[in-house]
Amino acid sequence: MNYDVIVIGAGSMGMAAGYFLAKSGKKTLLLDSFSPPHDKGSHHGETRIIRYAYGEGEEYVPFVLRAKELWAELEQLSGKQLFMPTGVLNVGVKQSDFIQNTIKSSEKYSLPLEVLNAKEIQKRWQGITLSDDYIGSFEPTSGVLKCEECINAYQELAEQHGATILSNRRVKEINIQNDKVTIKTSNQTFNANSLVISAGAWTKDLLKMLDLDAPLTPVRKTFAWYEANEQMYSQNHFPAFAFETPQGIYYGFPSIDGVGLKLGRHDGGETVHPVMPLFPYGESDDKDLRQFLTQFMPNVEKLKYGKTCMYTLTPDEKFIIDLHPRYTNVAIAAGFSGHGFKFSSAVGQALSNLILTGKNDIDISQFSFRRF
Ligand SMILES: Cc1cc2nc3c(=O)[nH]c(=O)nc-3n(C[C@H](O)[C@H](O)[C@H](O)COP(=O)(O)OP(=O)(O)OC[C@H]3O[C@@H](n4cnc5c(N)ncnc54)[C@H](O)[C@@H]3O)c2cc1C
């Protein structure tokens, strides 16, 4: 079967790319090992934080503002509420690069941001306990994306524009000869003019098939939901948050629709290979999250349940969004290092632009493969 473009991996980035490619009139095929959205990769767990005054560096801001516009467009086209404007509170010591970067981003791009001391934070959100050496930056316009629903929405629209999405088709072989792409699953062969590789934690193995050794490290991550007083921690009273502490970087979500407060740890985690099942959420994972709660949110109650997921890290924790250095008809999106979901609408558009024109309208050179 012949297509204009094949997308390997119909997860966060791939499903969005499939939509933009199909919308532009390309005959598009998306292949996935599972049936997205699913809980085997990096996109499950109901919620993802989206923030614009970017702690990882102001250079991300134009790209995340494009993502914001595209999420609003997706809400309008799908008729679904995908974004919840809870606001996001970042907490750290005053010298923290992350906090200082949020302030610099807000100044440069005129983004609303309130800088608060520990007393002001505790007065506003009684569910938080902080010592005086912490400060916070609160971005009221940011919030939470419903991640699986975003993927479902892109899937529906991609199909409306004629894309074919085949689930439970793991790609086992990629060959490129004279600019023609041949893809094999266990019992089917597909041909195309161009290829997008957006296979999350599995991307390293696929890129090896195209002689590329990508510095990508899949890591096991855990997160959990806790019973919490709704008066204190519901989405009507409490923001999404990220705390930089001496023990680690923790992030979380208010109790949304009564499901409980959700908490995860951003740094650390064991290196894994995604073909092996992840070690399930266990006692030591809970102990780590509980010590954060004891110190900073002591009113949060019992563990409800925990889950595991994967990050795919690059050495500098910046993404890879680029054409293959040798094959100009192959676009790659990988290494989202635990902060990529919020960008996935803009990444999908960028991948489509790379395939259609070889470049993106917003500068993505910081995500080039050649930097390694
Ligand atoms: C616990 C957790 C919390 C996070 N929190 C945030 C947050 O708050 N904000 C934020 O912005 N980001 C967050 N992230 C990061 C974000 O979710 C990821 O960066 C993003 O989901 C990565 O998208 P992806 O498309 O690369 O991978 P995925 O969404 O996992 O998609 C990859 C797809 O490729 C498929 N695939 C793999 N190999 C093959 C193959 N051989 N053949 C066919 N298909 C294949 C997989 O089945 C999968 O569906 C978080 C991540 C985790 C794990």
TrEMBL record:
<feature type="domain" description="FAD dependent oxidoreductase">
    <location>
        <begin position="4"/>
        <end position="353"/>
    </location>
</feature>
<dbReference type="GO" id="GO:0050660">
    <property type="term" value="F:flavin adenine dinucleotide binding"/>
</dbReference>
<keyword id="KW-0472">Membrane</keyword>
<dbReference type="InterPro" id="IPR045170">
    <property type="entry name" value="MTOX"/>
</dbReference>
<dbReference type="InterPro" id="IPR036188">
    <property type="entry name" value="FAD/NAD-bd_sf"/>
</dbReference>
<keyword id="KW-0560">Oxidoreductase</keyword>
<keyword id="KW-0285">Flavoprotein</keyword>
<dbReference type="GO" id="GO:0005829">
    <property type="term" value="C:cytosol"/>
</dbReference>
<dbReference type="GO" id="GO:0008115">
    <property type="term" value="F:sarcosine oxidase activity"/>
</dbReference>
<feature type="transmembrane region" description="Helical">
    <location>
        <begin position="6"/>
        <end position="22"/>
    </location>
</feature>
<keyword id="KW-1133">Transmembrane helix</keyword>
<keyword id="KW-0812">Transmembrane</keyword>
<keyword id="KW-0274">FAD</keyword>
<dbReference type="Pfam" id="PF01266">
    <property type="entry name" value="DAO"/>
</dbReference>
<dbReference type="InterPro" id="IPR006076">
    <property type="entry name" value="FAD-dep_OxRdtase"/>
</dbReference>
<protein>
    <submittedName>
        <fullName>N-methyl-L-tryptophan oxidase</fullName>
    </submittedName>
</protein>
